[in-house]
Structures are given as structure tokens and as C-alpha cells.
Design goal:
Helices cover about 45% and strands about 20% of the residues. It has about 575 residues and is an alpha+beta fold. The structure holds adenosine-5'-triphosphate (ATP) and magnesium ion.
Length: about 575
């Protein structure tokens, strides 16, 4: 045989089967390689999906994102989810057949069996007679094969992942394993997104409740650091308040301090974890109520405290007024009783003194003393009359009254007293002031009292002395008021005396000059008119007294000074 060495070599290899093994070997290698690269693609898809799907995504978006990536690993012309809702399996999303949303999956369909038995379903051909596909011909027309993967959450079936193709027999057992992985991952993502959703909803509810509280609330840790606060601005406690910032130490935020306050409630709570309540009058003349509540840790240890701040200025003023009224009412009742008892003996004393004085007119010394007795008696009678008015024993008629006119009349009466003291009187009377229901004489009495007080307060003034009489309309939540204001630039009233000046017999004047009844009398008159008498004063600068009387709303031409 004359054969070339190459062909000889081949023949030997063919005969010994080396070539067949090589072929098999390469074929196997190729298959493995393809398998590995397919696995790689699938892993890559799972990885990309796990990165692309985030907590804030809806289930629909998750399926949308999967639908973008899945065709790289297998044929996929349909991707959807059927989820259990109210005991029924319903199509939650089905791309691209969104018209089938909320379609129920009937219990005699193969899909339901897959769901109920928690086993994957592989349909190489679509069974047209299946109730679900029969009910959805549009789907049946486009689809040829389908895979259904049960979605299990702690072994409980929650739904089905549906993957479909327009090709007959598009899926193998191998695809099923991969899709089961995908299904497991989707369940975890859906569960996480639901948990995230629940937590964010709970957080939102909690935050909106926290922010709906009209007063500031702060959560402060044991190191005085403000951890949390609602969106209400902090009250202004100091004249120069530190800038309101988000965090920081509570002692700095509220009081501009660099070290904790000496009487910090946190120290008390460390001893005993009980709530602490405080009331504070600020530099800015506001009254604030603070409530501190301990926040305890797992073992009952103090971990923080909450602090709420409430501005109770109006409430506190109202309480003071009520207290004052109650005190005045009690004093008034007593005064009325005493006044009645004194009235008759006083009349007898004055009468007898006057009679004796007439009889002993020739004994000058005696007559003078008797005149003194009669005058003192008359002064006492005046006081008694005031007391009776103050205790509202005297019922007076009320008619529609022009306050400006009553002021003019009162001025005419006291003018000479004021002029003597070289006081400039300024009038700013509101021309449109509506009439109020009042007793003109009593209003004159109040204005006179206020003007005489203002004159006395200006007594020691070195510079220009002025009294300004003003009338204006004011609206507040209680209605509309006609206000008479008497301003002076006199000595002012010390803060500690502000609450005392309306009390009967409180006077800073010498005994012969004042009885301390003027303001309490005026206060009683204001109350009897359904009004108020209030004061604002700065020691050394002056005072303003406001007599406010209610106005019937319909008689209002315009609001001059809305307060
Ligand atoms: N305009 C004012 N400026 C400063 N202090 C005032 C003013 N008005 C009242 N007061 C203070 O209030 C006190 C009480 O006033 P009130 O009118 O009740 O009594 P009085 O003036 O002392 O005596 P009376 O009015 O009975 O003659 C006064 O003694 C004074 O200390
Ligand atoms: Mg007075």
C-alpha cells in the first residue's frame, strides 16, 4: 500500500475511534459553553433586576422592569402577575395585555390548579378549552405556550408569575428552574416594597399627627439635644431670640444659654420619671405653659423627654380677670352691706352736726369743729355712694349714648383741675364712632376718674405733661367694641401693682388725696355695661387705660382699628 503519511495517520485515528471522541468532546464542550453562557445571561439578568428593582417601585413597575430584561434569557412576549385578592386570583398586571387587568382566574382553570397546588405549570401549547383562555380569546389568539410559577411567601401561595410566548413549545424544564428563581426574587422584592410602603405610610401618619398639633413639641435626649420637633415655630422668650434652627441644644434654642438651665426638668426626671409642668412669663410679656413628659427605654431608664409649649397669655389674662371679678363681687357684697348700715347713722351725724353748728354759730371754735364733722360725714357719704355704685346696688338706666359727647362733658367738668397742672390735653376722637348702650353719667364718671388719675400720675413730671383722649372701634373674636383710651406720659405703674390697682382701697396716694376706689368703681361700671377696663403701662413712661364697650354689629359704619 502506497499511502501518504497524513492519510495514514487519519486512517489510524478513524480506526482507533480517536476522531469520534474528539468530535464528541468538542460537541460536549460547545454545549457546556453554551449552557454556561446561558446561565451567565440568566444570572446577569437576576443581578440586573435585583439592582433595578427598588423599594419605592410599585408591583407594576417591577414587572415592567423584568419585562425589559427577560427576553435576553428566554422567549418572552407576555409577562404578568396574578395575585390573590379577597379569596380570588386576579390579574394584577399583564404586559402587554393590560386590557385584562383585574380579570379573575376561574377555579377550574389550570392556572388556579397551579396556584392552589403550589406547583409550576408548563404549557407547551395553549389549551384553548381551558376556562381562563376561553374567557380571554385575545390572549389565546396571540399566545402559544405559557409558564406559570407560583409565588410563595413562607410557603403560602400569594400569586402566580405568568411568562408566555407566541411560539409553540418555547419553554423547557430548564427554563422552569430559572423562572422559579426569578419568581422567588420577585416575591421578596414585592414583600420588601409592601413593608417599605407600610412603614412609610405609618411614618407619614405619625408625622402629620405630630405636625397637626398646634403647639411646638420637641423630643430632647438626656444630653439636652433636640432630636425631633414638629413644624411649629418656637415661642419668642427673649427680646433677642437665637435663630430658630432645626436641631441643637434645647437650652440654647429656647433661652440662648450655653449651659443647661439650673432647674432643668430632666434632672428631676432622672430622680423620678414623672411629668413636670411649668409656667413662665417671658421677657416679651407672654405667658407660656410647658409640659415635660419622660420617655423611658426598654428597662425603664430615662432616654429622652418630650416638651410641649403652649402660649396661654390670653387664658391667663382671662383667669386673672375672673379671679379679680370674683374678688370684687365678694368685696362689693360686703361693701354694700356695710354701706347700708352706715348710711343711716351717718345721716344722723351730719344732720346733728349741721344743726348744732347753726345753734352755736356764735362759738366760732365749736362751729368750725362741727363743720369739720359734717364735712367728714359728707365725704364718708360720697365714699358710701361710690361703694354702692361699685357693688352695682344702684341700678341705672341705659340708653343709646354717644361716647364722644360724654367725654366732652366729662372734660368740661375736670378741665379746670387739669389746667391748673399745666397739662396739654390732646383729643383724637373717632368721628364715626357708633352709639353704645350706656349710662352717660357713669361713663362721665369713669372718664373723670381716669383723667384725674392721669393728672396725679403727671404730678412729678419734669418735661411736657400730656393726656391724650382717644376713641376708636376695635374688632376681636368677641365682637365689636367702642373704646375710650386715656393715655398719659406720667410715672407709670410698677408691674407688681398692675394687678392690684383695680382692687378697692388700693391707693398709692396720701390719705386725703385718694381713697383707692376710683378704678374699682370704674371697673364695676365697665362690667355693668358688659364691657372691660384694661391697662397698659410702662414704669417711667406712662400708662393707657382702655374702657371698651360692646357695639351692636349692625350699627357699624366701618372698622377703624381692627385689633
Ligand atoms: N394713670 C395712672 N398712672 C399711674 N398710676 C395710676 C394711674 N391710675 C391709677 N394709678 C394707680 O392706681 C391707684 C388706684 O387708683 P384709683 O383711682 O382706684 O384710686 P386713687 O386714685 O388712689 O383714689 P381715688 O380715685 O379713690 O380718689 C392709684 O393710687 C395709683 O397708684
Ligand atoms: Mg383715682
Amino acid at each position: 500500500m502506497d499511502q501518504k503519511p497524513d492519510s495514514q495517520h487519519k486512517l489510524i485515528e478513524d480506526l482507533t475511534g480517536v476522531n469520534t471522541s474528539k468530535l464528541n468532546y468538542y460537541a460536549e464542550l460547545k454545549k457546556r459553553n453554551e449552557e454556561i453562557s446561558r446561565q451567565n445571561v440568566r444570572l446577569e439578568i437576576l443581578y440586573r433586576l435585583s439592582r433595578a428593582i427598588n423599594l419605592e417601585m410599585s408591583v407594576e413597575d417591577m414587572i415592567g422592569e423584568t419585562f425589559k430584561h427577560l427576553p435576553q434569557a428566554l422567549r418572552c412576549e407576555l409577562l404578568g402577575l396574578a395575585m390573590l385578592k379577597n379569596g380570588e386570583l386576579q390579574i394584577r398586571t399583564l404586559l402587554p395585555f393590560q386590557s385584562l387587568l383585574h380579570q379573575p382566574v376561574s377555579r377550574d382553570s389550570l392556572l388556579w390548579t397551579s396556584f392552589a397546588e403550589k406547583t409550576a405549570l408548563l404549557l407547551p401549547q395553549l389549551p384553548a378549552e381551558d376556562p381562563f383562555f376561553a374567557a380571554n380569546p385575545a390572549l389565546a389568539e396571540k399566545l402559544r405556550s405559557l409558564v406559570a410559577i407560583p409565588l410563595l411567601q413562607r410557603s403560602v401561595a400569594k400569586g402566580l408569575l405568568l411568562v408566555g410566548s407566541s411560539q409553540v413549545g418555547a419553554y423547557t424544564q430548564d427554563n422552569l428552574d430559572f423562572l422559579q428563581h426569578l419568581g422567588d426574587q420577585l416575591v421578596i422584592s414585592i414583600q420588601n416594597a409592601q413593608l417599605y410602603d407600610d412603614v412609610s405610610r405609618a411614618r407619614k401618619n405619625w408625622e402629620s399627627t405630630f405636625n397637626a398639633v398646634p403647639d411646638p413639641i420637641l423630643l430632647i435626649d438626656t444630653d439636652h439635644q433636640v432630636l425631633l420637633r414638629n413644624n411649629r415655630p418656637l415661642p419668642k422668650i427673649l427680646h433677642v431670640q437665637p435663630a430658630d434652627q432645626a436641631g441643637g441644644k434645647c437650652y440654647f434654642l429656647l433661652y440662648g444659654r450655653l449651659v443647661p438651665c439650673p432647674d432643668c426638668p430632666m434632672d428631676m426626671m432622672r430622680q423620678s420619671p414623672e411629668p413636670v409642668y411649668r409656667r413662665l412669663e417671658t421677657e416679651t410679656q407672654r405667658v407660656l405653659d410647658f409640659a415635660f413628659y419622660p420617655v423611658l427605654g426598654e428597662y425603664g431608664e430615662l432616654v429622652a423627654m418630650t416638651k410641649t409649649v403652649k402660649d396661654v397669655t390670653e387664658k391667663s389674662q382671662m383667669e386673672n380677670r375672673l379671679l379679680h371679678s370674683a374678688r370684687l363681687a365678694a368685696i362689693g357684697e360686703m361693701a354694700a352691706g356695710v354701706a347700708h348700715e352706715l348710711n343711716s347713722p351717718l345721716t344722723a351725724i351730719i344732720g346733728t352736726a349741721q344743726l348744732l353748728r347753726c345753734e352755736w354759730v356764735d362759738r366760732a371754735e365749736l362751729a368750725e369743729s362741727l363743720e369739720e364733722v359734717a364735712n367728714c360725714g359728707l365725704r364718708c357719704k360720697r365714699i358710701i355712694k361710690n361703694l354702692l355704685t361699685f357693688s352695682r346696688q344702684d341700678q341705672v338706666p341705659m340708653t343709646e349714648t354717644d361716647l364722644n359727647r360724654e367725654i366732652e362733658r366729662a372734660m368740661a367738668l375736670v378741665h379746670y383741675l387739669i389746667d391748673k397742672s399745666h397739662i396739654r390735653i390732646i383729643k383724637s376722637l373717632c368721628a364715626d364712632l357708633p352709639e353704645v348702650k350706656a349710662n352717660g353719667l357713669q361713663i362721665q364718671q369713669v372718664v373723670t376718674n381716669l383723667m384725674i388719675n392721669a393728672r396725679d400720675a403727671l404730678d412729678k413730671n419734669e418735661g411736657e405733661k400730656t393726656i391724650r383722649l382717644e376713641t376708636f372701634l376695635k374688632r376681636n373674636r368677641d365682637g365689636l367694641w367702642a373704646v375710650v383710651a386715656v393715655h398719659d406720659n406720667g410715672q407709670g405703674i410698677e408691674k407688681e401693682n398692675l394687678s392690684k390697682i383695680f382692687t378697692p382701697f388700693f391707693t398709692s396716694k396720701e390719705a386725703t388725696k385718694g381713697t383707692g376706689l376710683g378704678l374699682s368703681l370704674s371697673f364695676g361700671i365697665a362690667q355693668a355695661h358688659g364691657g372691660t377696663l384694661e391697662v397698659e403701662s410702662i414704669p417711667g413712661e406712662g400708662s393707657v387705660f382702655f374702657l371698651s364697650l360692646p357695639v351692636k354689629d349692625c350699627s357699624v359704619p366701618r372698622v377703624v382699628n381692627p385689633g
